[in-house]
Fold Biopolymer transporter ExbD.
Amino acid sequence: MRARRQTREPTIALINIVFLMLVFFMVAGTLAAPTETPVSLVRTAELEGLAPPDVLVIHADGEMQYGRDTVSDLEAFYEGLPNAARSQIRLMPDRAAPAHELIGVAGQLRSLGADRVLIVTEQALP
């Protein structure tokens, strides 16, 4: 009868991986020094979500608004913009606005000559 040869586990490889992970997290993680004086942060929970003045808002019912003006004709809206503002246009759609409406407005603005059409969204916080 032949004795079975025991295979050794690759512990050196495991130690190397753990060490590399440790070094990675030490380099990737940044530790900020605490401030010398206590700081009270601004609370924004009570702020009302207002659109910036240079953004085209698309409401849930499809109505568009730029500042306080209602926009019914995109071509007239685009032609009425200053030349500096025509290259980059920001859209802020309502969450309930139909996606096809947003895509249509963005496509029409691009066909009118806008180089970039940016969509303003809400950033989800962890």
The chain is about 35% helix and 15% strand.
